[in-house]
Amino acid sequence: MSPEKSKTDCVFCKIINGEIPSKIVYQDEDVIAFVDINPITPVHLLIIPRKHITSLAAMSDAETPLVGKMVKAANKIAREKGISEKGYRLTINSGAEAGQVVQHLHMHFMGGRILRWDN
Ligand code: AMP
Ligand code: ZN
Known about the structure:
This protein is of the alpha+beta class. The chain has one domain: HIT family, subunit A, CATH 3.30.428. The protein is globular and about 35 Å long. The model is unreliable at about 1-5 (pLDDT under 50). It has 2 helices and 5 strands; from the N terminus they run αβββαββ. A 5-stranded antiparallel β-sheet has the order 1-2-3-5-4, with helices on one face. It binds adenosine monophosphate and zinc ion (ZN). The site of zinc ion has 6 residues, from helix 1.
């Protein structure tokens, strides 16, 4: 994999490469989804692009269709888990003030219980 697609010091790139174990629930050529290691809801997944993009704010215009692919994967997972009608939440934290800790673009998929706005 070329350097711009995989950062050797990135934990999520290591999950993509299989260097770090994870419970992968969905994958295609552009995105993968796996179980969050510290879940705050009964269903808490992370949906990420295979390409190493640091954050939402760092995306180029050409890369923004990847977000649609992440949403498409989320909707598919929701249907498979039977929570499509009940409800689920997608969240992308971008930057320090939003609480982004891992510097590889990721979408939180949260569901499986009633969610309040402050979780
Ligand atoms: P954020 O605060 O938006 O950057 O969220 C980062 C998320 O990544 C947190 O919910 C962590 O629990 C999760 N996380 C960090 N390392 C791993 C890992 N190795 N496997 C699964 N989830 C992880
Ligand atoms: Zn990465």
